[in-house]
Amino acid sequence: MDARFTAEQDEIRRTVRELLLKRCGPEEVRAAAGTGAGYDPALWSALAEQLGLPGLALPEAYGGVGCAVTELALACEESGRVLAPSPLLATAVLAAPLLLALGTETQRAELLPRIAAGALTAALAVPGTALSLALGLVGDNRGNWAGGGRAGGVQARRAEDGWRLYGQVEQVLDGHSAGLLVVAAHAGGFARPRTLLFLVREGAAGLVRARQTSLDVSRPQAWIQLRDVPAELLGDEHVDVADALTATGDAAAAVLATEAAGAADRALERTVDHVRQREQFGRPIGSFQAVKHRLADVYVQVQAARSAAYYAAWAAGTDPERTGQVGQSERTERTERTERVGGLALAQALEALRTAAAEGIQLHGGIGFTWEHEAHLYFKRATGDELLFGPVHRLRAYAAERSGIFALAGSEEVAV
């Protein structure tokens, strides 16, 4: 593994950071999060048209840039530093990879170029609070988490004109404003139960959606109700939805970890700047050894999280298909490697962000507890992401289970 970034990767980071520093300060973040869409359409247009972020990890054949997950993660690291509200995560990290992996050629040709250009936003709608489970981050995603019988969720049934969906979905990232919904639904009844993915277009008859009040205002979430809504099956009935969701979850975990590491680094920077200026007893509070020790511990945690996130992004971006190694052994090895490091990196990054934000609030003193200061926004980002994609202890437990640590420990005890 070459840990050095390429000139192209450094340029992506620099360009994204410059744009966000100019157009996404604390006041702009608050103003954008308070709009109906939950983000600034002008900033989104700049990110899409000038920098091509929505299509960064999409193939050039579909209007994308043709980069890997690593480049997308580096761009998200910069957006995480300023907590930029945008549909980038929902569209480019969660929905677009599923369209690319499962969609028919017609669906790809129609939808992916519009996503790459920023003209179409998309969202993944998973019933209940099962997003982390559906993505294979905290457990096996081959269960009936999409609903079925009296379990609620979303049901899919065949109709003369195609498929119809009915049910309710909550906690859908950017679901209130997305032009396209990728909905996970239970199909087949009790005879042939299975989970399939469906496409629901904006303005479809029977589609009701509204923005929810969420802990993290920079991550808008929606409540969606489907009342006999016409839908289009993504791909065909024989696709392996669970594997596609797991692969998407692996890459998403790496991107989220890098984003969280960027946010943690920025929270620590702001705290260090404050303790250098704030004086108590005639000297900066940053000169007190107790404060130095606390910030040193945070620094070590943030750097470790960043290192783990970079490795997870590299692992997710090492696709055998890009190098021509499409054998089953290479594919299996990559899947296992990414599943382990993605969840672990995300757990470490979320914990680092929570610690950095909490210490920032504490060391800012009285001002750190006010709504006017942005320190609380970083703490809410950490808590909100853990509610959506965690919790941390379950991310670690499932990664350990997948790697066989518990089984290995048990066999060693027996041997002893």
Which helices and strands occur, and which strands form pairs?
Elements: H1 7-23, H2 26-33, H3 41-50, H4 69-82, H5 88-102, H6 105-116, E1 122-125, H7 131-134, E2 154-159, E3 162-173, E4 180-187, E5 194-201, E6 207-212, E7 221-233, H8 241-277, E8 279-280, E9 283-284, H9 289-317, H10 320-323, H11 328-363, H12 375-389, H13 392-403, H14 405-415
Parallel strand pairs: 1-4
Antiparallel strand pairs: 2-3, 3-7, 4-5, 5-7, 6-7, 8-9
Helix pairs in contact: 1-4, 4-8, 4-9, 5-6, 5-8, 8-9, 8-11, 8-12, 9-11, 11-12, 11-13
Question: Can you give a write-up of this model?
Answer:
The chain is built from 14 helices and 9 strands. The longest helix is centred in the middle third of the chain and has 37 residues, at 241-277. The strands form 2 sheets. Strands 1, 2, 3, 4, 5, 6 and 7 form a 7-stranded mixed sheet that branches. A two-stranded antiparallel sheet has the order 8-9. Residues 320-339 have low confidence and may be disordered. It is 54% helix and 15% strand. It has helices at 7-23, 26-33, 41-50, 69-82, 88-102, 105-116, 131-134, 241-277, 289-317, 320-323, 328-363, 375-389, 392-403, 405-415; strands spanning 122-125, 154-159, 162-173, 180-187, 194-201, 207-212, 221-233, 279-280, 283-284. A hairpin with a 2-residue loop joins strand 2 (154-159) and strand 3 (162-173). It is α+β, with helices and mostly antiparallel strands and 416 residues long.
